[in-house]
Structure to design on (398 residues):
C-alpha cells in the first residue's frame, strides 16, 4: 500500500511503518550516544507506545539496559487501514530490543480495565518476580471505571469563566481568536476521573498487594504547568485540576511506598508536540513560539532528551532534586525567565501574516507529521509498503 497522511480534524488517521521505525531508531541512537545509566533493571511503562512513555521505555532499555513491559492501546492494520503509529512504534522497539538481547514484551489493551492490570501482574510474576520502576504515562480522552462501569470523557476547558486567546490552525497557519466556554462541575469530575490519579493508584495498589514491587521501587507520572498565558486553558482549567489530583496521588503513593523504601514522583515535563498536546487549543501556538526561542538559544529538547535527563540527572543520580511541592522539574529550561519573556513578546505581535517569521510553526508541523512516520528524509513515500507489521511478543502469543 502507498501510505500518505490523511486527516480527520486534528487527528492523522494513517501512519507509515517505515517512518515510525525511523523515529524509534533515531531515539534509540540518541540514547546510545549518552553515558550509560545505573538505573532500574525491570521497568513497566503504562502508556508506552508514543510521546513521553515511548521515550521512557527507550531510555530504560537502551540507556539502563532494563527489561521492559509496555502497556498501550493501539490498533493493528486491517484491510485498507494502516495500524496506528503507536503500534508501529512498539513493533520497531521490540525488534531493536531483541537485536540487543533485551527482554521486551507489550500488552495491548485498556490499561484502565481490571483485565489488563491482571494480565500485566501475571506477566510480571511469571517473568520477573518483581518490578523496579513503574512509569505511568497515559493520556486518554476516555475511561470506563473498572468498578462502577461509568464512562468518563475528559474535556479541555477553563474552569469558572470563559477564556479568550489566540490560537493557530497549525495546518493552514491561520491565527485566530478562540473563546472557550467554562466547564461544568460534571465535566471537571469526568476529566479528573480520566486524567487524575485514581487509576495510577489502582495500578500501584494492585502491584503492591501482589508483592510485585521490588524493595526501593519507584513510580513516576508526568505533569505540566506552563506559562501564565496558557494557565486558563491548562493549569487552572479542567486538565490542571486533574493534574492537581495526580500530584496529590504522588504524595500519597510516596508515603505508601515507604514500607518498601520506595518512592513516587511527579515529573513536570516540557511542552512538546504529541498526539495529546496537539488537541489543546492555544497550546500549539505557544509551542511553536517556544520552539523558536529554545532552538535559538540551543536549549530545545524533544521527548527523548527530556527522558534521558530525567533518568540520568534526576531519578538515578543520587538525591532527587524537587521543587517546594515535591515535583521533579524538567520544564526548568522552558520556564527560564529569558525564554518566557521572549515568548510573551512574540505572543503579543503574532498574527497570520507574520506567523512564519515569529514562530517555528514549520518545526511544529514537521514534529506533528513525524508522530505518524511522515516527513522523514530518506523514506520514499511514493513506494508501496506492507502495512501489516507484527509486534513480536503479541504475534508469538497469537
Ligand atoms: P501520548 O498521547 O503521546 O501517549 C499516550 C499513551 O497512552 C500512548 O502510549 C497510548 O497508547 C496510551 N493510552 C491511552 N489510552 C490508553 C488506555 N486506555 N489503555 C492503555 N494505554 C492507553 O501522550 P503524551 O503527551 O506523551 O502524554 C503522556 C503524559 O505526559 C500525560 O500525563 C501528559 O499529560 C504528560 N505531559 C505531556 C506533555 C506534552 O506536552 N505532550 C507535557 C508534560 C506532560
Amino acid at each position: 500500500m502507498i501510505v500518505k497522511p490523511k486527516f480527520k480534524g486534528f487527528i492523522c488517521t494513517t501512519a507509515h511503518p517505515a517512518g515510525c521505525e525511523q523515529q524509534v531508531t533515531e531515539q534509540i541512537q540518541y540514547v546510545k550516544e549518552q553515558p550509560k545509566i545505573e538505573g532500574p533493571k525491570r521497568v513497566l511503562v503504562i502508556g508506552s507506545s508514543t510521546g513521553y512513555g515511548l521515550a521512557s521505555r527507550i531510555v530504560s532499555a537502551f540507556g539502563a539496559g532494563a527489561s521492559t513491559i509496555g502497556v498501550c492501546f493501539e490498533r493493528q492494520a486491517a484491510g485498507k487501514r494502516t495500524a496506528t503509529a503507536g503500534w508501529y512504534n512498539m513493533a520497531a522497539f521490540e525488534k531493536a530490543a531483541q537485536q540487543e538481547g533485551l527482554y521486551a514484551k507489550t500488552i495491548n489493551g485498556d490499561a484502565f480495565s481490571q483485565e489488563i492490570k491482571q494480565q500485566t501482574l501475571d506477566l510480571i510474576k511469571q517473568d520477573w518476580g518483581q518490578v523496579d520502576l513503574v512509569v505511568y504515562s497515559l493520556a486518554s480522552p476516555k475511561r470506563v471505571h473498572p468498578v462502577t462501569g461509568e464512562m468518563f470523557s475528559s474535556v479541555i476547558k477553563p474552569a469558572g469563566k470563559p477564556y479568550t486567546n489566540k490560537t493557530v490552525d497549525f495546518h493552514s497557519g491561520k491565527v485566530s481568536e478562540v473563546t472557550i466556554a467554562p466547564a461544568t462541575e460534571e465535566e471537571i469530575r469526568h476529566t479528573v476521573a480520566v486524567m487524575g490519579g485514581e487509576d495510577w493508584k489502582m495500578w500501584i495498589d494492585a502491584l503492591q498487594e501482589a508483592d510485585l514491587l521490588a524493595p526501593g521501587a519507584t513510580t513516576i507520572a508526568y505533569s505540566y504547568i506552563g506559562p501564565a498565558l496558557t494557565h486558563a486553558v491548562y493549569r487552572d482549567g479542567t486538565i490542571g485540576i486533574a493534574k492537581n489530583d495526580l500530584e496529590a496521588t504522588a504524595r500519597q503513593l510516596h508515603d505508601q511506598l515507604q514500607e518498601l523504601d520506595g518512592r513516587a514522583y511527579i515529573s513536570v515535563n516540557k511542552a512538546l508536540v504529541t498526539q495529546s498536546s496537539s488537541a489543546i487549543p492555544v497550546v500549539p501556538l505557544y509551542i511553536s513560539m517556544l520552539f523558536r526561542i529554545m532552538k535559538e538559544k540551543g536549549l530545545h529538547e524533544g521527548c527523548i532528551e527530556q527522558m534521558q535527563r530525567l533518568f540520568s540527572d534526576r531519578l538515578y543520580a543520587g538525591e532527587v532534586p524537587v521543587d517546594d511541592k515535591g515535583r521533579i522539574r524538567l520544564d526548568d529550561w522552558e520556564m527560564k525567565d529569558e525564554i518566557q519573556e521572549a515568548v510573551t513578546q512574540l505572543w503579543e505581535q503574532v498574527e497570520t501574516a507574520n506567523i512564519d517569521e515569529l514562530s517555528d510553526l514549520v518545526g511544529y508541523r514537521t514534529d506533528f507529521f513525524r508522530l505518524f512516520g511522515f516527513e522523514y528524509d530518506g523514506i520514499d513515500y511514493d513506494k508501496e509498503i506492507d502495512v501489516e507489521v507484527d509486534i513480536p511478543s503479541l504475534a508469538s502469543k497469537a
In short: The first helix runs from residue 17 to 32.
